Write a sequence for this structure.
């Protein structure tokens, strides 16, 4: 059974930083692209960032470019999202999501974690 | 970025009804479209990808169609478990984008 377990969400001040983690199990993590998708309270879904299986290619939504860094450690089956210069509009539940195809960045997410809440507020 | 627009935003229906949700893309996305179901407090669930391919384990009452800029999600006979919010999503080009969602409510 595929499991994705996010952690790291917390209350952080504007301008602050936080690192989210997503530990994967039940599938070949090292051969699957991964993404983070967020959902502000009461709002819809927004894709944030994606990384290919090897970690050498990343893509970001414009609003987080230069502030967020996506990485992965395939030896630990773990995905990371380093978030800095945080703004109130970054407040959301952040979901880790597995891409449906192996090796390639495809953008269809067939497994999701339960989410971790990041609240940016003074 | 490609904009995805769903209609309606809210839909009231009864058990057994046939339900159709429309998703329109601001430019052609071929068939690079997915549909997700989300219930309150839960993560989204993939229902359909490549516009019409039913994800494993999803009931056959769900179907998807369309290509280019107009797509539909159809639930052939609405069941109690289907009351939820549905999102379309394109992955033709970055940034991958979602529609604003369609909430299916009990009539």
């Amino acid at each position: 059974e595929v499991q994705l377990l996010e952690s790291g969400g917390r209350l952080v001040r504007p301008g602050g930083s936080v690192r989210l983690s997503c530990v994967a199990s039940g599938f070949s993590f090292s051969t699957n692209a991964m993404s983070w998708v967020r959902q502000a309270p009461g709002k819809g879904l927004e894709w944030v960032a994606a990384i290919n299986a090897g970690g050498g290619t990343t893509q970001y939504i414009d609003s987080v470019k230069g502030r967020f860094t996506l990485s992965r450690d395939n030896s630990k089956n773990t995905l990371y999202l380093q978030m800095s210069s945080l703004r109130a509009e970054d407040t959301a539940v952040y979901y880790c999501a597995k891409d449906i195809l192996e090796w390639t960045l495809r953008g269809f997410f067939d497994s999701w974690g339960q989410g971790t809440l990041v609240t940016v507020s003074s | 970025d490609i904009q995805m627009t769903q209609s309606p935003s809210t839909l009231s229906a009864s058990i057994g009804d046939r339900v159709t949700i429309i998703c329109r893309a601001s430019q052609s996305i071929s068939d690079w479209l997915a549909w997700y179901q989300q219930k309150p407090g839960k993560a989204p669930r993939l229902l359909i990808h490549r516009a019409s391919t039913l994800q494993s384990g999803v009931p056959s009452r769900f179907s998807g169609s369309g290509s280019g800029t107009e797509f539909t999600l159809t639930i052939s006979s609405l069941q109690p478990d289907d009351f939820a919010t549905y999102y379309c999503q394109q992955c033709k080009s970055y940034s991958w984008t979602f529609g604003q969602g369609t909430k299916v409510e009990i009539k």
In short: The two ends of chain B are 35 Å apart (CA to CA). Chain B touches chain A at residues 1, 32, 34, 36, 38, 43-46, 49-50, 55, 87, 89-91, 94-101 (CB under 8 Å). The mean pLDDT of chain B is 97.
